[in-house]
Write a structure and sequence with these properties.
Layout (H helix, E strand, L loop, with lengths): L1 H51 L3 H14 L3 H13 L3 H17 L3 H14 L4 E7 L7 E4 L2 E3 L7 E4 L2 E8 L6 E7 L5 E6 L10 H48 L10 H34 L4 H8 L7 E2 L4 E2 L1
Parallel strand pairs: 1-7
Antiparallel strand pairs: 1-4, 2-3, 2-5, 5-6, 8-9
Helix pairs in contact: 1-2, 2-3, 3-4, 4-5, 6-7
């Protein structure tokens, strides 16, 4: 009997532990879900308020944020209407189609029909861009306003929002090509022909050498100029230190005998002398480094041409002698 009682108590304890775990998990999971839903609803209501006040750009951002927090057909439908109010017909058309597809998956047939009807109504108003590509090189990438246009879209009329659009074409080993086009509203059509890209200019070894030569020349002049400036500072401090030391010797009868109230002035003279010495060391080092850079800098083409010139020997004959 006692054994059965112990077994029963153990069973109750296991059941109680399982219930506690389930309750704990439910307490953790529900607030997170509820928080996302509450945030989505708050953003949705703020979006409706902004839209009612004509602040369409802000409203579109709020509806998009509401959808990100918790995807819903309602957020998509209002986002599409917001795009439509801003004149972004292509964006509105695309979002209406997304809303119709999402409503169909959710079994919301009335919303599916409404979203599809709005999309069909917008379709004749869509403005489009056709990108024609001539001789596309390997690795060609075409972007429109920074968004990649897939190769399968070349030659197709793609719906775009009215406004300015930048088209950029790039490929390895070729020059970048770009153009801009302004697309109007109400079924405007624009065709952009992307020409064959021009090969990128090759950098010859002579150009590289010239660049290195120019860098050494400019760098050498800069370093040497810095050295001269620092040497000038060293000379200035050195002269000041020498004059002050002579004046101090005249006043107190020799530096070694300068005691009492002369310690501060003597310390200032020594500090000035140290600064002068340091400036001389730094300036001399910089000047020497600049000179080395100038010496290592390759000669200019004019200098090389003049250096390669050879002496010409021309025979001549005079009345009394001859020579070369």
């Amino acid at each position: 009997m006692a054994h059965r009682l112990l077994v029963f108590r153990a069973h109750l304890l296991r059941v109680a532990c399982r219930l506690a775990v389930v309750c704990l998990l439910g307490a953790v999971a529900v607030p997170a879900w509820a928080g996302d839903k509450a945030a989505a609803e708050s953003l949705f209501q703020d979006g409706k308020s902004a839209m009612d006040q004509g602040r369409y750009e802000q409203a579109c951002g709020l509806f998009a944020a509401s959808f990100d927090a918790e995807p819903s057909v309602g957020a998509l439908l209002n986002l599409a209407r917001c795009h439509q109010q801003r004149g972004k017909t292509a964006s509105a058309w695309a979002v209406f189609n997304d809303a119709a597809a999402m409503a169909a998956r959710a079994g919301q047939h009335k919303r599916e029909s409404g979203a599809h009807r709005y999309a069909v109504k917008l379709e004749p108003q869509l403005s489009k861009i056709t990108l024609m590509v001539e001789s596309p090189p390997e690795g060609l990438e075409v972007t429109r306003n920074g968004q990649l246009v897939t190769a399968g879209s070349y030659g197709l009329a793609l719906p775009v929002d009215p406004g300015d659009h930048e088209i950029v074409a790039t490929a390895p080993g070729y020059q970048r090509w770009t153009t801009s086009v302004t697309v109007g509203a109400n079924a405007d059509r624009q065709t952009i022909s992307i020409p064959a890209l021009q090969p990128a200019a090759e950098v010859s070894p002579d150009d590289v050498a010239a660049g290195q030569s120019s860098g050494l020349l400019v760098g050498g002049l800069a370093v040497a100029g810095f050295g001269v400036a620092v040497l000038s500072v060293g000379i200035g401090f050195g002269v000041w230190s020498w004059v002050a030391r002579n004046d101090l010797e005249d006043d107190c009868g020799g530096v070694k005998s300068c005691t009492g109230g002369w310690e501060d002035e003597l310390a200032s003279i020594r500090l000035t002398a140290d600064i002068s010495t340091a400036a001389f060391v730094i300036g001399s080092t910089a000047l020497a480094g600049g000179a080395v850079m100038l010496l290592l800098s390759p000669s200019s083409p004019t200098d090389e041409d003049s250096g390669d010139a050879t002496a010409a020997f021309t025979p001549w004959v005079g009345p009394e002698n001859a020579g070369l």
